[in-house]
Amino acid sequence: MDVADLKTFEAVARHGSMNKAASELHTVQSNVTARIRALEDELGLPLFRRHARGVIVTPAGQRMLPFVGRITRLIAEVQAAAQDDGAPSGSLTLGSLETTTALRLSPLLTEFAKTWPSVRLVVSSGTTARLVQDVVEYRLEGAFVAGPIDHPDLHQEAIFTEELVLVASPGVQSLKDLTKIPDLKTVVFQFGCSYRQRLETFLAGLGIVAARPLEFGSLDAIVGCVSAGVGVTLLPRAIVASAHEAGKVSIHRLPREVARVETLFIRRHDGYVSSALAAFLEMARRVYRTSKAKAAPEKKAA
Questions:
Q1: How far apart are alpha carbons 112 and 94 in whole angstroms?
Q2: d(CA 108, CA 113)
Q3: Can you give the pTM of this predicted structure?
Q4: Helices and strands per DSSP (H, E), number in the chain
Q5: What CATH architecture is 162-260?
Q6: What is the rounded CA–CA span in Å between residue 139 and residue 155?
Q7: Domain 3-83 is of which CATH architecture?
Q8: If we measure between CA atoms, which residue out of 135, 162, 138 comes closest to residue 149?
Q9: Bridge partners, residue 111, by sequence
Q10: How far apart are alpha carbons 204 and 187 in whole angstroms?
């Protein structure tokens, strides 16, 4: 069984399309089709059901997928370990919440890039649910997500804590005003965002059943819609501080159990910790430990 065939199978299963898999693998569709047929012939059973819009993984294919991910990742880790001489280099593929990227990661990524220029660092954004899945399925080496997380395959480490606030249009003076808004809408990231889940639970506790949420893929779009009075959202206080100071939005404190959220760095228990990943984590701990230390005197003085 050829590793290239397994990688092709995984790509087709993920995209549900031979053509999209071919584009990702930088080859032509006929090569993808040939590899899948060869794999099916070797196994003696179909891995996909074809239809007009693409393919669907068969039950046999579904049973294979977890093993394919482990095999391909293990081979990649073998190659990485063989080439890892202790000096951070090579690629490092991470994920992060968009809010974390915008609010926290800039100084860390800048310092890391300057300190270790030989590392090809790639950071993609997504919801907590999506990032957890990508780490579990070996597509990311690690990710910054919102806690709590409970998954047997994941190692997690608290990096910093955020204070969430409810964000509304300037005309909303208090949380009580929300109960007076007919068909209140939430303006949120796509399904799987933990902030979204907290917001829906909090509103339900106020007796508010929000209308169908409006989903956006960018932070700027969410803040802009909230400012215009389209709906409300839940975001870290620091993210919306400038918009609040400019009078574009109102922010409202929440009970501690709703407002306090830990940002965790997750990685697989069985994943290879490369020199690049180890250096990144060491720098993250130092940078955010320093940030906390600087913030402490301000809190005490307040």
A1: 13
A2: 9
A3: 0.74
A4: 12, 11
A5: 3-Layer(aba) Sandwich (3.40)
A6: 16
A7: Orthogonal Bundle (1.10)
A8: 135
A9: none
A10: 16
183: left (phi over 0), alpha (psi -120 to 50) or beta: left
CB 186 within 8 A of CB 233: yes
Domain range list for the chain? 3-83, 90-161+263-301, 162-260
Q: What percent of the chain has pLDDT over 70?
A: 96
Quote the CA–CA distance of 237 and 178 in Å, as a whole number.
19
CA angle 156, 157, 161 (to 5 degrees): 120
Architecture of domain 90-161+263-301: 3-Layer(aba) Sandwich (3.40)
Contact 38, 52 (CB under 8 A): no
Q: Distance between CA atoms of 20 and 37, rounded to whole angstroms?
A: 17
Q: Could you tell me if 193 and 235 are in contact, meaning their C-beta atoms sit under 8 angstroms apart?
A: no
Same fold for the domain at 90-161+263-301 and the one at 162-260?
yes
Q: Comparing C-alpha atoms, which of 122, 194, 159, 121 is closest to residue 265?
A: 159
Closest CA to 118 of 72, 76, 83, 77: 83
Burial of 83 (0-12, 13-18, 19+ CB in 10 A): exposed
Give whole-number Cα distances, 43 to 50, 103, 126, 264, 292, in Å.
18, 49, 36, 41, 55
Query: Does the pLDDT value for residue 295 go beyond 50?
Result: no
pLDDT tens-digit profile of 42-66?
999 999 999 988 899 999 999 999 8
Phi then psi for residue 92, to 5 deg, are -140, 110
